[in-house]
Structure formats: C-alpha cells, structure tokens
Recover the amino acids of this structure.
C-alpha cells in the first residue's frame, strides 16, 4: 500500500536525489532548476556534452550538488553507468524525470525506417531502459519514488508528419500505465506530461511559417507553451503533493485537444 502522507503545498524536495534526462535541453534544464530550488540534489543526463556546463552553472546558482553525465540512452552500458554513478554519489534515487527526446518529421509514405526506429529507440526504449533500472533501485530502497515522463499530445492524437514520433510517444503512454500499475505497491508513482508545442529549439524547428500560424489559431489559449510551464507540472508530479496520482498523462496543451 502507498501510505498517506499529510502535505503542505510547498512542493518540497529537500533531501531527494533526482535524475533528469535531457538535462542539457530546454524542458530538462527548466525542470532541473525547479528541482534544485525545491532542495533536490541532481544528476543531469544528456547525450550532448553541454550537460557538464549546465550542471556546473546550476550547482553554483542553487548551492545543491549537481552532477552532469554524458550518456546515450540507446546504450545499455551508458544507462548502467548512470545508475552506478548516482548511487556512488548519493546512495539513493528518489526521482527520475525522463525528458530526453528527439523528433524527425516526415510523411508516413516517405519516412525512412531508420528514423522511425531511432525515435522509438530514444523516446520509448531509452526511457524504459532507464526507468526499469531506476525502478529496480527504488523497489530495493523501499522508500517509494517518482517517475515522470515527458510524452506529447502527439501520443494520443494524429498530427501530420509525426508518425515515428507518435508511435514512440503512444508507446510511452502505454508503458507509464503498466509501470504505474505494477509499482504502486512499492510506493512508486509513474506519470506523464503531454505538452502541445513548446517554444524550444525542438518546437521551433518543427513548427514554422504557415503551419505554426495555423497551429496557434487552433490552440484555445492562443499561444504555444513555454518550457517552465512544463517543468512546473513535472515538479508537481515529483513531490508528495501528487501522491494520489499515478498512471496519468497530464495534458498541457492550452485546450488544443478539448474537442
Ligand atoms: N518542444 C516541444 O514542442 C515538445 C512538445 C511535446 C513534447 N516534447 C518533449 O519534451 C522533451 C524535451 O524536449 P525539448 O523541447 O526540451 O527539446 P530539447 O532538444 O531542448 O531537449 C531534448 C534533450 O534530449 C537530449 N537527447 C536526445 N537524444 C538523447 C539520447 N539518445 N540520450 C540522451 N539524451 C538525449 C538532447 O541532447 C536534448 O538536450 C522531449 O521528450 C520532447 O519529445 C517537446
């Protein structure tokens, strides 16, 4: 059973250790900042080597321990070494934010199979690979845990040219539900957040010109999301205030999918 804990509304993460994948990216970077401000020590994981600078800057800014690890989530050995490094440094893992991801847009008729496969490998299998290893640690620790995955609106509605991305994000949504079901008895919550277009390098590259204008018109609030608005939802799903939520995929789309 997941025990009831009285909450204060402070979204406190003091004493927690959090892993943030995609920590060198936009949503990952904003999430890491919010986690650090709430008291967590952090491990930022990214395939890009800017992760070291990002970690050092955050450590200086927030006065928490922040470690950067360059790792490719498609590789078993890299994922193993992330878990080993975190345990050596902190002795425990409380939170995993699966934020790393890629997108390659092309019509279903033309897309090269390797691009579909790569999106599955990073977004879906990479996320599962690390979640499984971290889940095993959390189960052994017997202190519960939080796993939050960034999915997408593309995981449950059809958007042109998104076939590989949609396959990977829809699979993530399915994975979240199964992990949530199996791990609730260990006090582990597993949830997703599903953004609409977010104004990051990834979002700006995918949505330009006339397609961008049309998309903004279709969003009831009349704009794209910002990375900090996604990070805030991830924070909520990472602390005790959301203990009663699991297996959920929180849509952050300014109303795009209301109808
Ligand atoms: N930006 C959007 O419009 C949008 C919308 C919905 C969902 N999302 C999702 O949000 C997440 C973050 O996106 P973002 O907008 O911050 O993009 P971003 O490109 O700034 O961040 C993604 C990060 O993932 C890292 N990454 C890619 N492949 C990796 C691998 N194999 N191993 C480790 N790290 C890897 C990248 O280096 C990058 O730093 C992604 O999962 C994306 O699919 C983004």
């Amino acid at each position: 059973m997941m025990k009831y804990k009285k909450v204060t509304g402070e979204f406190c993460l003091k004493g927690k250790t959090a892993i943030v994948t995609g920590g060198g990216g936009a949503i990952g970077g904003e999430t890491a900042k919010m986690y650090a401000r709430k008291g967590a020590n952090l491990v930022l994981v990214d395939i890009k080597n800017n992760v070291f600078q990002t970690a050092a800057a955050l450590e200086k800014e927030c006065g928490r321990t922040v470690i950067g690890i360059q790792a490719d989530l498609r590789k078993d050995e890299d994922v193993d070494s992330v878990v080993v490094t975190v345990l050596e440094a902190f002795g425990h893992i409380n939170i995993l934010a699966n934020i790393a991801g890629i997108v390659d847009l092309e019509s279903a008729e033309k897309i090269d199979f390797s691009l579909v496969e790569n999106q599955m490998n990073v977004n879906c299998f990479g996320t599962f690979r690390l979640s499984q290893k971290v889940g095993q640690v959390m189960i052994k620790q017997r202190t519960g845990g939080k796993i939050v995955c960034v999915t997408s609106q593309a995981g449950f509605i059809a958007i042109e040219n998104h076939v590989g991305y949609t396959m990977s994000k829809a699979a993530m949504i399915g994975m979240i539900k199964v992990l949530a079901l199996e791990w609730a008895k260990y006090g582990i919550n597993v949830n997703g957040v599903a953004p609409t277009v977010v104004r990051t390098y990834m979002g700006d590259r995918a949505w330009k010109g006339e397609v961008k204008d049309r998309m903004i018109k279709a969003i009831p609030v009349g704009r794209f999301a910002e990375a900090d608005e996604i990070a805030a939802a991830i924070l909520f799903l990472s602390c005790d205030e959301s203990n009663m939520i699991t297996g959920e995929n929180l849509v952050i789309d300014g109303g795009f999918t209301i109808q």
